[in-house]
Amino acid sequence: MAGRSAAIIGRIAQAVPVIIGVVVISFILTRALPGDPAVQFAGLAATPESIEQVRVKLGLDKPMPEQFLIYVGQLAHGDLGQSIATGRPVAEELASRLPASLELTLVALVLSCIIAIPLGVLAATRQGTWVDQLCRILVTAGVSLPTFFTGLVLIYVFYYLLGWAPSPLGRLDFVFIEPDRVTGFYLIDAALAGDWETWTGALKQLILPAITLALFTLAPIARMTRASMLSALSADYVRTAKAAGLGSRQVLFTYAFRNALLPVVTTLGMVFSFVLGANVLVEKVFAWPGIGSYAVEALVASDYAAVQGFVLTMALLFVVLNLIIDLAYSTIDPRFGTGAR
Amino acid sequence: MATVLDAPTASAQPPKMAQPAAVKSGALAHTLYVLRENPVTALSFGMFAFFIASAVIGPYVVPYDPLATNSAMSLKPPSLAHWFGTDNLGRDVFSRVIVATRLDLIISVAAVALSFVIGSFIGAISGYRGGWLDTVMNRGLDIIMAFPLFVLAMGIVAALGNSVANIIYATAIINIPFYARLVRAEVNIRREAGFTQAAKIAGNSDARVLAFHIFPNALPPMMVQVSLNLGWAILNAAGLSFIGLGVRPPTPEWGIMVAEGANYIVSGEWWLAVFPGLWLMLAVFTFNLMGDGLRDIVDPRRRT
Amino acid sequence: MSFSRRDFLKTSGVLLGALPFARAIPASAAPRDTMVAVISQTINSLDLHRVGTNRASYQIAVNCYDRLLTFGSKTLPSGELSYDYNKLEPELAESWTVSEDGKVLTFKLKKNAVFFDGTPVTAHDVKWSFDRSVSVGGFPTTQMKAGGFERPDQFKALDDETFQITLDRPSKLALPDLAVPVPFVINSKLAKQHATAEDPWATEYLHKNTIGSGAYKVARWDNGQQVVLERNDKWVGGPLPAVRRVIVREVPSAATSRALIERGDVQVAFEIPDKDAAELASKLKVYSTPIENCLHVLCLNTKFEPFRDDNVRKAVAYAVPYEAIFKTAAFERGAPMWGGTGTVDSIAWPQKSPYDTNLEKAKELLAKSGFPNGFETTLSIATDLSAWMEPTALLIQEALAKIGIKTTIEKIPGANWRTASLVEKRLPLHLENFGGWLNTPDYYFFWAYQAGHLFNSSNYDNPEVNKLVDETLHMSMDDPEYAPKIRRVIEIIFNEIPRIPLWQPALNVALNGAEGYEFWFHRQLDLRTMKLTEG
């Protein structure tokens, strides 16, 4: 359909200024960070001369606009630059760390959905009763705690006191060898290699951090499920179905629930991109080698290229995610995308 | 975080008729009705009153000076003398938790008020004027939204320095798009509506129509947003503290107390993190629960 | 790292089953020969010479490379093992001679020393490696300079086994400076194969590969997570280490590290906070070695008005609550550095300052100063170091308030701290820490008290101190003039007190299932002496 592909191209065109804006702002923001990377990276007993040597080496002696042009030039070649702290190309590093964050986030979201969606449906069908109130209190409690606090409490109870959870040492215990890298997702890679011991090991490591994140995402998903279920249940087609004498269970699942899922999916998209950015704190607690912890380290050390690369990657992810959601929406819902946006 | 998520619900609601200054006479009765109908909301209002009271009179009634150290009394568990125990410098945790209420409420209220005002302004103009202005402002908001929000807040605080004011600015900036979007959507729907035209014909200026006839319609969904954001602002400050970008010591603040206390959990000094954590959680909890209640009170459609 | 899963399985063989904590396998079923150590910082490079390499990465240079010389070891009064600054021992060098005038150092290399790939270690490798360290700039070059090594033309390979250094002037710091981690010896043949026109020193290659002759080689490096080291059985630098495999794992959260070591899932927790060290001491083997030539100090910047006044500085020094700080911030780890006798009769450094907490005296001194009614100022601390700086700053803030000095505490994050405190030296009142690798008082004074030098964040400038430090820096410690000059410096800096010593910090290491830990001035974990124990 010509109209649709035009709409898609239009959406992509809209994303272009956003990406440009992100590039400019992240460049300015990193330069506005106090502190001098040349001093930071010149090491312990730096002398003014050695600091100057480092500055020249990093290209920081050039005027700001020139630095920006160099940066943009590199970007045009798909080069995100080199992190000073780790001495590796930022792109390579993000590529190796992104799967860790994505895996954690996805597992957390799946877990969250398994709990939150039934809770939301339950709350909607029993609107106003104590069940509804209890659900509301439960999910709100989850979102009311700082994630790093929940994480540490979980470690204390389930690892330190009870010894049920494996040591909070990142993605795999020492006993296991990282599976051959195909996707970077340990669960998938281990399954592909048929190495179920490693698979179980990776899953065990995921449990505590995933619960920590899931607790935090229960509320939005459950609330959205409840709200859209409520509006679906009061919609005409459901009333008609009920009046036609269909069983309430059937009405609930075939008509109301399926229709209510659409806004929930949108919500999931937003929760996903948000949680990916908010991973920062959980990753620190669980020594998780994801991009969040990378970004914090880089920010604290004024590692310009790394911060810019991270922000740009996240922005691209966000844009792509929104694009997918929009496209999914327009495919499902024919009324959409005809110029409303 | 939850901030992102209630926006669609709100804007998904069918457009409602404007109710300029309608909630007046029956307001009290209606509020009481909502509270009676919904005990959880009543509870949240009660807790809110408690927090306001702590913020106002707390500093005058706490048993100890929240800043006074006493190295002989460091890391003592809760007792009759120190209800919440003492911290690593021997300061009374209970006094610190109570005194911190004021600062935490200031941070969250100021941040939310800032983003509310700026967001509403941008959203209203953008929605009312439309055209290129709308497009430019929208792209601007898109850029902010495209940043990983917590990292943006970190970057701003790191760049500007970690003072209370900068934490407020950072929190406000990352929340602006949500308000702007909400208001823009509501305004956009109504700028051609009959009552708007009527108000214009009656000789009202654009600004007046916008402020008194169109904007009030956006308030109910924004109420939810406001209460969620109040809670989230506190969590945001706590997260910043955890990575060392919180308010200056020795100022008591829940987030910094939890962040610092969290490191003492494994060594068994649980009271350092648990009590401020509990207060923080109750506050966020209160704000979140109040959101729905507030909407019910403000939203005339919910009256039965 | 070209280390495939297959290789890994092959080389580890039986080992894999013997790795610790395989919960499925009974721990007693196989000999334990893998040790796990946790560190809080990240290892960001395998090459110490690279620009941007952080401190935690130095342990790679220590364990995977050899130097010509190393220090011997001694047992401290506490029973802990420590390196011995006064005992130089051979590592790659078999023997060495110093010329009559002290300017020419000649080293004979061990004949059987080989690099990991089997090629013999020659004097040409040493020459290339030394050239590299004085040419790459940054920290390695500065550190080499401290020993008097500044230019490639000072280094000569006389033949395959003989290496010669010519100094511009004799210095007592020259030989010890060869035993610090910096002048490590690289397989130059292999390195040159990876050198390019833009990268003549093969920094790209050495960043990710260890090509030395040291006791361990890096089997695997997962950046940001862990380094896996395997013993080099061909090592000739010293007695073969007992542990075959070491996993150095990075755990940023101190609380998590503590849980791990307490539960025995790791054998070594390196550089743990003072509080954990104090509390774990009753349960585990904990080493808290006061760090040689290192002090936590309160700096008063003499460029800023109130602190230009001698009486103000002294008043502050008498107001500091030393005892409370040592208890609550240091948990009594390390050594107290206050309440000395007031007469300087030794050249030991650090030594106790003559100051003690005495608020009456502090008030008196402030009344005599140009600021009798007190003043307001900012007390700056580093976010990264807030573990000790924050409680210390809070106690100082409270104490200073009692004599009328009102302070605001300012926390400065990571990258900005060094710029503000050391480079721009613009913090009026701040906490600081400096430790010298080379353990002589003059070396400390050179960095921390001589005008213009990096760690002199107080902007202290006393002509007599400047002169005395210049005179003593390269002077032999046996020289009869040395001790009186050093004592004079100590007298002056205690009297003028631009840096108020608080305490000498400790390096804390907890062991659970391992032994043989030795303290080193470089504050890195030396794996070569470590052993595993049962249970």
Which features does this protein show?
heterotrimer, A: 341 residues, mainly alpha, B: 304 residues, globular
What does this structure look like?
- The complex is a heterotrimer of chains A (341), B (304) and C (535).
- Chain A has 341 residues and is mainly alpha-helical.
- In chain A, 75% of the residues lie in helices and 0% in strands.
- Chain A contains 13 helices and no strands.
- In chain A, helix 5 crosses helix 9 and helix 6 packs across helix 9 (196-233).
- The longest helix of chain A is centred in the middle third of the chain and has 38 residues, at 196-233.
- Chain A starts with a helix and ends in a 9-residue tail after the last helix.
- In chain A, 51% of the residues are buried.
- The model of chain A is unreliable at 334-341 (pLDDT under 50).
- Chain B has twelve helices and no strands.
- Mean pLDDT of chain B is 80; it is low at 1-24.
- Chain C is of the alpha+beta class.
- In chain C, 31% of the residues lie in helices and 23% in strands.
- Chain C has a seven-stranded mixed beta sheet, sandwiched between helices. In chain C, strands 14-18-13-17-15-16 form a six-stranded mixed beta sheet.
- In chain C, helix 12 runs antiparallel to helix 14 (359-368), helix 17 crosses helix 18 and helix 18 (463-473) runs antiparallel to helix 19 (482-496).
- The longest helix of chain C is centred in the C-terminal third of the chain and has 17 residues, at 386-402.
- Chain C is globular.
- The chains are: A mainly alpha (341), B mainly alpha (304), C alpha+beta (535).
- Chain B binds chain C through residues 67-69, 71, 74, 88-90, 158, 162, 244-245, 248-250, 262-267, and chain C through 253-256, 258-259, 262, 275-276, 279, 321, 323-324, 327-328, 383-384, 386, 390-391, 393-395, 397-398, 408-411, 413.
